[in-house]
Amino acid sequence: MTRSRLGTALLVLGVLALIALPLVLDGGTSEFAGTDATAAELAEEQGAQPWFESVFSPSSAEVESGLFALQAALGGGVLGYVLGRLRGRRLAERSREDGGS
Amino acid sequence: MHIAEGFLPVTHAVGWTLAAAPFVVHGARQVVTEVRERPENTLLLGAAGAFTFVLSAVKLPSFTGSSSHPTGTGAGAVLFRPPVMALLGTIVLLFQALLLAHGGLTTLGANAFAMAVVGPWAGYGAYRLVRRLGGGLLPGVFAAMAVADLATYVTTAGQLALALPDAETGVPGALVKFLSVFALTQVPLAVGEGLLGVLLFRALTVNARPELERLGLLAAAPEPTR
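^ Those are the sequences you sent over. The predicted structure of the assembly is below.
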């Protein structure tokens, strides 16, 4: 394994650990409620009076999670496309140079 | 960091919209200029937008027993400077306000100001500081990602505190309360986001070296490394 690959693996492991450790260490006591929702509850305790409703609300948690997945998929798809093209370009340049010399 | 639809008083909603609007308009102009004058950067511009799109869609658990999402605005701020992210971040927020009932149209201004203006500028500032202190590109990117993330959430807490001061302790008291919801939860996420940014830029330094050199992020190498 090259040093660069090792670095990548460690970085990925670090990210995974940061996500997994809270769940493991917690042992099922917390609900992991979203901070945005918690802040909205706190805002209502502080006297916020919502005066406008969302123009469109996903009708169920399933629909909502699907739309969030769509957002992530769009982003991930574009990101993967760009990185793939850039990598393809570099490999093509390299083989051209190798062929030319 | 999404303030829910309708939760800000009308005056605050209008105020934040007016505050964010010039940044977003300027950002839109910058994006158009970038695409027109440097079309070779369009791919990277797409990557910067896509990165925010993914990261702000994913809610991750944190050590505080609650979960939150990263913002991903630091990468674009480093690549193309913060104004570009004012537009890209606002597009993300608009998507979520319209389709996900996450955030809202009346709070779009405030949310854009936090995530698309303050976050990217704070992250870019952190990046410049690290580079000036002699740090390399990757440490700079890590700082930019983490600081942009944290600054966004601190700004949101401030906006909520200003709009909803505590009955007894006023704005400072409310700020402490809202920060207790956001800040600590966000720290591990900001670190994780920093690591993701480093991963992205490692891939870019290998595969998009000419672009990064043109953007002034990397010194031009005399001979490309194999």
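Residues 60-100 of chain A form one domain. The beta strands of chain A are 33-34.

Shout if you want it in another format.
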